[in-house]
Amino acid sequence: MHSAPSPSPSRDLRVLVTINALPLAVGVLLSCSTTLGEISLYGRLTLALGWALAQLVVLVGGAWWYESRSASSGEPASATTAASSAGGTW
């Protein structure tokens, strides 16, 4: 059985950038107000620290998702990737 073709790599890249840009924008806004960042969530965990951890999880999860989509797309590797993995020069 054939599965549906995956969307174009440029669409995947746009999705990756979008899911990482939104938390980054909120983090920048949160860093502009120290009173918001100091709100205690649980014990010594503040809103700013909680948001930074959430942003890290989104970044790692998004990178993992993008890598798995890229690896499963079935497209041949570019010439520079093939040369560098084979020990060639850049």
Task: Based on the model shown, name its key terms.
90 residues, mainly alpha, 2 strands, 6% strand, 4 helices, two-stranded antiparallel sheet
How does this structure look, described?
The chain is mostly helical and 90 residues long. The mean pLDDT is 77. A hairpin with a 2-residue loop joins strand 1 and strand 2. The protein contains four helices and two strands, in the order ααββαα. Helix content is 67%, strand content 6%.
Cα-to-Cα separation, first versus last residue: 39 Å
Give me the oligomer status. Answer: single chain
Mean pLDDT, rounded to whole units? 77
> C-alpha Rg, in Å?
19 Å
How are the strands ordered across the major sheet? 1-2
Helix content: 55-70%
Unreliable residue stretches? none
Global geometry: elongated
Order of helices and strands: HHEEHH
What class, by secondary structure content?
A: mainly alpha
**How many extended strands?**
2
Strand fraction: 5-15%
Report the major sheet.
2 strands, antiparallel
Number of helices: 4
